[in-house]
Amino acid sequence: MSGSNTDDLFKSLNKAQSRAVSSRASTVAILAGPGSGKTHTLTSRVVWLVNHVGIPPCDIIVATFTVKASNEMKLRIGQALGDGREKKIVLGTFHSIARRYLATYGRHIGLDPKFGIADDSDSRGIIKRISKRLGSPIEPGVVRAWISKRKAKGTSDEQTVKAKNGKDLQSKTLEECYQEYQAHLDRSNLLDYDDLLIRCVELLRKYPRCVQHIQTVLIDEYQDTNGVQYDLMKLFAQENRRITIVGDPDQSIYGWRSAEIRNLHRLLRDFPGTDEISLEENYRSSSSILDVSLKVIEQDPERYKKVLLPVHKKGTRPVLRMLKHSTAEAEWVVSEIKRVRLMSGNMIRADDIAILLRSASLSRHIESALGREGVPYKMVGGFKFYERAEIKTILDYLRVIHQPTNNDALARIINVPKRGIGDVTVASLLEEAERNSMSLWGLLNKHCRGERQAKTTIRKQSEQRISGGLLRLITQLQSRLRPKEGTPVDLLDIINQLLNDLQFEKYLEETHGPEYESRWANVQEFANLVAEFVHHDKPEDEILPILDNTQPKPDDDALARFLANVALASDKQTDDKSKEEKSQVTLSTSSFNHNAEVRFFYCAPSLTATRLHYSRGSLCERHSC
User: Fold this and answer.
1) Alpha carbon 588 to chain centroid distance?
2) pLDDT tens digits, one per residue of 122-161
3) What's the half-sphere exposure (Cβ side, CA atoms, 13 Å) at 581?
4) Is the peptide bond before 417 cis (omega within 30 degrees of 0)?
5) Mean per-residue pLDDT over the chain, rounded
6) CA dist 275 to 49, 244, 272, Å?
7) How far apart are CA 21 and CA 246, in angstroms?
8) How far apart are CA 407 and CA 441, in angstroms?
9) Which candidate, 339, 216, 353, 348, places its Cα nearest to that of 286?
10) What residues does 361 pair with on adjacent strands?
11) Per-position DSSP letters for 140-191, written without gaps between them
């Protein structure tokens, strides 16, 4: 790397940032307060490692906590490196990176690379049926939260290992529900969000060869990692033990998602000699905000001691932001929400914040951004975009096309449009399939072909509609996803064929009357979303190294990538009934009750976002309108 390029890299860095970027230590812990330029520092270190140390981009893993952060980091690294070298870096969220490794190498732990991802509604439905079948007195939501927390702890947590092997394993009922739940996912070839990480840990332990080329691992937002993510970090770096983490224990807001604040202490214990560097200069906030923040967080006697030095002296005022498009608008609004919460020491809760929309149909970009960032929210007078009935139906059809053994998705579409199958019959078929350890798809197929008579009564007319209008349709669309070699798959065309074959617009009109137009508009917006994905989808960016002659090349499965993208982007909060989870940002149209106890309004009329600060508390009086 030339001297001039080195000078350019450090020109925009202060002393502490420069030290962090060029540290020669194997393990570096960059403790960065809010607004201290941590993303710039981390991306600059990646550039330093590639250009100065000489580490090939394909030997670097960069794990972030949100989709937005990974996209921003990839853009910045790409601008600095040039020649598209950033595409070779394994960069993404923990879940997306784990999915890539499992899809490529999962066969080494007996995992079908065509696995699907079970979303929140799938997990809830499965656990509800299991709880009913077992006669469990425990609420299904409590069972699900317990399972998720158990998985998130990881195996390096001593208390978790003790709990699994000892007598204090909560209860026999919880363990039985857990085992039944996992067995169902295995039969259906599904992984839930936690399993993506758990199975990746299993893979890296049993088949470490797939990461033996990795020379360094960098972790962003380290304070938000949980136990299993800590395990993953160590396993990714197991060959060379070179790790750089950036985080701030003061900013850990994901305890309800099992984030472990003590992971910093575990790192310092497991990697002695770690170079600890504090970024203390704050480039974002006024001294008044920093003073208040420090007064709040310094009350924690176990806090890692560090200071925040303001660069700016004056206080901020309400602003009008003119943004280029709705995606940028949504990302800006969500980043502002996170900033406001963090700078208040988390004293401003999510339910202190409202996002006002000119029309409910404009919520998709806002909802996607909130979902990517893991910000809990609720719609007043409406449903989240991916939870609207018409959108869930289309997604469930696509999930069954990709993964016919997904019982819950198939059960939800078996009578959409109407095929004369009532809810009681669907529930009975689902229970029959699961009691016989088979998929609902297999049960219906065998029944319609006369190979096995279902014990559940299915009328002849309904059987014909299932056979011709559902099973045949799914099978035909599956064949279109396996074109001749060299023929690209047109995902949007396949979805349009699905909508046409279902006569979906007519179905909405017959089912919802005058309301169907708004629902059909949502379907068209979904088509726009698919078009955006297809335009930006680059499967070559996800290819991992081919390690042996028996390893199959990754399939060009556009549908699998799209469904994974939707599932990972819409990964919401768990069903933990804690006080923190009940706190949600409110999305509403102008009919919102302005007498509610809301401290901050964000108005997003479309293409512009106006931040209006309104406060009933003393922390934000400088921002009052």
Assistant:
1) 23
2) 888 899 999 888 888 888 888 888 898 888 776 554 444 4
3) 12
4) yes
5) 80
6) 16, 9, 9
7) 11
8) 7
9) 339
10) none
11) HHHHHHHHHHHHHH-SS-HHHHHHHHSS-SS-HHHHHHHHHHHHHHHHTTEE
Q: Which residue has the higher pLDDT, 170 or 392?
A: 392
- Give the residues across from 218 on adjacent strands: 62, 244
- The whole-angstrom separation of Cα 296 and Cα 285 is 16
Class in CATH terms, 389-525: mainly alpha
CA distances from 224 to 39, 219, 299, 374 (A): 15, 10, 21, 11
Domain parsing of the chain, residue ranges: 3-108+195-279, 119-187, 280-315, 319-376+574-623, 389-525
Q: Order the strands of the 600-604 sheet from edge to edge.
A: 319-322, 608-613, 600-604, 353-357, 585-589, 377-379
What is the rounded radius of gyration, in angstroms, for the C-alpha atoms of the chain? 25
In words, the CATH class of domain 3-108+195-279 is alpha beta
Same CATH topology for 319-376+574-623 and 389-525: the answer is: no
Among 3.90.1030.10, 3.40.50.300, 3.40.1350.10, 3.40.309.10, name the CATH number for the domain at 319-376+574-623. Answer: 3.40.50.300
- pTM beyond 0.85: the answer is no
**Can you tell me the distance from the alpha carbon of 331 to that of 326, in angstroms, rounded to the nearest whole number?**
9
What confidence tens digit (pLDDT) does each residue in 546-592 have? Answer: 776 655 555 457 888 889 888 887 654 333 433 344 688 888 765 44
Q: Are 350 and 583 in contact (CB under 8 A)?
A: yes
Q: Output the six-digit token pair for 119.
A: 């979303």
